[in-house]
């Protein structure tokens, strides 16, 4: 298997501030890797160096066998920067076409590619809209669409689900899952749980240091966990309704407003959808729905 990303002793200083300290790791083609860490850990700095937006202060970063920022990587890598913005003066479609032209596509190919990537993220009908006319979730999906223009081999997504509601976040995870096999991914997030199902590698960064680099090795038959934080206390009728959902193995109630659901892994995606539909249909409001319970515990023995 050939190398997807290889970093050796990567260091980044901003004046006296060390954002990355001797970071070394290697990912292989086909990997779907999670880059996890708290605020200020250095995730965006690492992304920016890999994308060629920022030079490293020391060490090496290679993607697909080339130095980060090399012209040989042009068109082979797609990226969603954390603060991706659209120009308010042009429609989403016009901007994606322009981006396609910058990648060297003909006008006709740029139009076709824009239509392909907007369809991928479920926004084909919104091509003529300006960013201001789209919801936050739609803007995020449009920015993700941009990262897929030109069919890159590697896509870097910095916080692709930040600020999205559970249904939109699920749609993004499903898209990534659907494209895995054709595209390799490096995805950053604060939340290890939401990437648990998607990723086969985990890089854990804290204070600029790579604390752990692990193979996730989630077994295909291991149960999937969901933590549901309710706005009100749970009730018997809610528990009864949840028990009817296909795929549920068991429910625990660690706190009055919190439920931990154990779900069959092969039904996890359809379970998420039926759970959200069940909550909406019964008017049960929830504060958050987070994925998983196991991976961080495996890495750090928190349990
Ligand atoms: N341009 C800059 N100038 C000075 N310091 C910076 C700069 N960019 C980042 N830093 C510092 O480097 C460290 C790492 O920041 P970075 O944005 O990479 O973290 P992060 O893991 O992406 O955080 P978050 O999850 O909050 O986005 C932080 O201490 C930050 O203050």
TrEMBL record:
PROSITE patterns the UniProt entry points to: ABC_TRANSPORTER_1, ABC_TRANSPORTER_2
InterPro entries membership: AAA+_ATPase (IPR003593), ABC_transporter-like_ATP-bd (IPR003439), ABC_transporter-like_CS (IPR017871), P-loop_NTPase (IPR027417)
Keyword field contains Transport: yes
Pfam families, per database record: ABC_tran
Gene Ontology MF terms in the entry: ATP binding
Keyword terms: ATP-binding, Nucleotide-binding, Transport
Membrane-spanning intervals of the chain: none
ABC transporter domain boundaries: 5-232
Family annotation (CDD domains): ABC_DR_subfamily_A
Family to which this protein belongs: Belongs to the ABC transporter superfamily.
Name of the protein: ABC transporter ATP-binding protein
UniProt organism field: Rheinheimera muenzenbergensis
């Amino acid at each position: 298997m050939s190398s997807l990303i290889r970093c050796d002793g990567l260091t980044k200083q901003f004046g006296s501030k060390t954002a990355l300290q001797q970071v070394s790791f290697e990912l292989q083609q086909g990997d779907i890797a999670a880059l996890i860490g708290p605020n200020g850990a250095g995730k965006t700095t690492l992304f920016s160096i890999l994308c060629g937006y920022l030079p490293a202060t020391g060490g090496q970063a290679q993607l697909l066998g080339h130095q980060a920022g090399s012209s040989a990587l042009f068109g082979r890598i797609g990226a969603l920067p954390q603060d991706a913005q659209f120009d308010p003066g042009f429609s989403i479609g016009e901007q994606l076409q322009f981006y396609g032209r910058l990648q060297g596509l003909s006008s006709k190919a740029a139009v076709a590619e824009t239509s392909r990537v907007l369809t991928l993220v479920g926004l084909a009908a919104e091509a003529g809209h300006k960013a201001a006319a789209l919801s936050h979730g739609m803007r995020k999906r449009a920015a993700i669409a941009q990262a897929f223009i030109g069919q890159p081999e590697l896509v870097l997504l910095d916080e692709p689900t930040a600020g999205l509601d559970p249904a939109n976040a699920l749609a993004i995870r499903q898209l990534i899952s659907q494209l895995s096999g054709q595209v390799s991914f490096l995805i950053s997030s604060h939340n290890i749980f939401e990437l648990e199902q998607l990723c086969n590698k985990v890089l854990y960064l804290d204070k600029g240091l790579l604390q752990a680099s692990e193979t996730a090795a989630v077994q295909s038959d291991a149960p999937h966990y969901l933590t549901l934080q309710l706005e009100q206390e749970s009730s018997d009728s809610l528990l009864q309704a949840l028990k009817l959902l296909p795929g549920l193995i068991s429910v625990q109630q660690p706190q009055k407003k919190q439920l931990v659901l154990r779900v069959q892994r092969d039904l996890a995606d359809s379970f998420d959808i039926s759970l959200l539909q069940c909550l909406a249909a019964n008017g049960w409001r929830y504060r958050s729905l987070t994925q998983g319970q196991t991976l961080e515990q495996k890495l750090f023995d928190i349990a």
